[in-house]
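INFO  loader      accepted 1 record
INFO  loader      residues=139
INFO  predictor   begin
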Amino acid sequence: MRALGLDVGTKTIGVALSDELGWTAQGLTTIKREENEEKKDYQAIAELVLEHGVDTIVIGMPKNMNGTIGPSGERSQLFADELSEYVSSTIKMWDERLTTVAAEKMLISADVKRKKRKQVIDKMAAVMILQGYLDHKGS
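INFO  predictor   done
INFO  writer      dumping tokens
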């Protein structure tokens, strides 16, 4: 039973995958998005779900610092609703406040160059989203 973590942005989708026991999250890929081609995004995720035997998809829900849901959160919820038409996996929303900031700080502290950070930041944020969910589920 595996879980897939998604950090859904307007230009990319960071993807992370859990191990089979659901204990750890690892970066899997970054999906480049094209304007008005959302169907390709859903199909790419559906292929990953089938390939890796995913039963749960965890999508980052960007909330405002006061806990309210703004336009970005509404876009994530819409993405989840539309993705549900392409997969039979359970879809969970997970509070992702500050995951991208934390991922960037982690990469900076690891002395990763700016150009390389831009290439992996979304995947790293997906790892943090999924790992937060896995840790919470396990406690």
